[in-house]
């Protein structure tokens, strides 16, 4: 999944993630998901938050950035990605730009 989002500095921002229509739904029970923003694709994150699993059986999760976190962002494009960790696996599951 690759998606572009827009964030206004100083706003509380929430994004809900779900499998694309052409993806098989994966039960994400037991997963830990981390959402990160970086100025360089694959670079050191400027912001990292733990995502909340909203429905493990449906494979959906939510990432939230606080007003303080978005206020600290500069006026530029950022790359975002979401990584899952479970049973010894660590893999990217979604990415895009903001």
Give a quick summary of the entry.
Helices cover 5% and strands 47% of the residues.
Beta-strand share of residues: over 45%
Give the termini separation.
14 Å
- Secondary structure class reads mainly beta
Spatial order of the strands forming the largest sheet = 1-8-7-3-4
User: What letter string, H or E per element, gives the SSE order?
Assistant: EEEEEEHEE
Q: How many H/I helices? A: 1
What is the C-alpha radius of gyration, as a whole number of Å?
13 Å
Cα shape: globular
- Give the total of beta strands: 8
- Report the biggest beta sheet as strand number plus sense, adding barrel if it closes: 5 strands, mixed
Uncertain regions spanning at least 5 consecutive residues: none
Mean pLDDT: 91
Describe it for me?
The protein has 98 residues and is mostly beta strands. The chain contains 1 helix and 8 strands, in the order ββββββαββ. The strands form 2 sheets. The chain has a 5-stranded mixed sheet with strand order 1-8-7-3-4, with no helix packed on it. It has a 3-stranded antiparallel sheet with strand order 2-6-5. The chain is globular. The model has no long low-confidence stretch (mean pLDDT 91).
Task: Please tag this protein with its features.
five-stranded mixed sheet, single chain, 98 residues, three-stranded antiparallel sheet, mainly beta, globular
């Amino acid at each position: 999944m690759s998606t572009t989002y827009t964030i206004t500095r100083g706003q509380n921002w929430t994004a809900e993630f779900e499998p694309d229509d052409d993806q098989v739904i994966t039960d994400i029970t037991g997963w830990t998901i981390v959402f990160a923003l970086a100025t360089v694709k694959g670079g050191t994150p400027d912001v990292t938050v733990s995502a909340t699993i909203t429905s493990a059986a449906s494979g959906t999760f939510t990432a939230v950035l606080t007003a303080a976190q978005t206020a600290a962002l500069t006026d530029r494009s950022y790359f975002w990605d979401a990584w899952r960790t479970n049973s010894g696996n660590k893999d990217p599951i979604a990415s895009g730009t903001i």
